[in-house]
Amino acid sequence: MKPRIGIVGNVFTGDSEIFYHNHATYTFQGNIDAITQAGGLPVVIPIQSEELAGEYFENIDGLFLPGGQDVTPSLYGQEPDPLLKTTSLKRDKFELALFKLAWETHKPILGICRGVQLINVALGGTLYQDQSLMKRSVTVEHDQAPEFLGNVATHVVKVDGNLQKVLGNKILVNSLHHQMIKQLAKPLESLARAEDGVIEAVQSKDAVHPLLGIQWHPEMMLDHPEMRAIFTNYLSLFD
Q1: Helix (H), strand (E) counts: the chain
Q2: For residues 100-121, b (16+ Cβ closer than 10 Å) or e, as one string?
Q3: Which of 228, 144, 156, 239 is nearest to 198 (CA)?
Q4: Is there a contact between 24 and 44 (Cβ–Cβ < 8 Å)?
Q5: Which SS3 state, helix, strand or coil, does residue 42 take?
Q6: What is the pTM assigned to this prediction?
Q7: What are the tens digits of pLDDT across the range 46-59?
Q8: Distance separating alpha carbons of residues 40 and 234, to the nearest angstrom
Q9: Residue 73: CA atoms inside 13 Å, Cβ hemisphere, count?
Q10: For the segment 63-121, what is each residue's pLDDT rounded down to a tens digit?
């Protein structure tokens, strides 16, 4: 059977005639397509109370934490900076509960953008609340300008470790984040960095915790074989 990959959904809270002015639970189609093309069975999980995480977790084989809001700073010991954008503590707590279950049971975990940031926080790391707060000798714009579509690559990432087998030594990526990893959690190791030193990919240091975290959005660039290979690599963790 295909592995069931739980993709945590987001909630659209704006006012839209398309949804008859109702809120809506959703995930981007790219998340669905990426998992499907890689051989998995995507299952969208709505944001619920953390007490219900266990019941949802029983029905999945792997966990996919996708992009979305900023992670609540109090979860990594910081006060909100004026540059902080929208947060959702309910989503944070629900995803943290799911992550804890996946980590403890050694089920494969994938984090994209916000997802890799949440993973880092869950394991004891911290974040820069905005890219301007990181001292850099080289400036790379990580919050991709609105005139660029999400499928447009805007900067280079240098790839290290076993991720080179998937992506090669360097890769052009899109970039839709203004936050990034500050202190890397001790259980994690970096697999890729941008030219300014921003961590762009991580994995667990030990083999018993199958985990892959990617800071850019490969699900928006599925016409590139290297981006599809990221999800194929994740699904290979079930072999």
Answers
A1: 6, 13
A2: ebbbeeebbbbbbbbbbbbbbb
A3: 156
A4: no
A5: strand
A6: 0.96
A7: 999 999 999 999 99
A8: 10
A9: 14
A10: 999 999 999 999 999 999 999 999 999 999 999 999 999 999 999 999 999 999 999 99
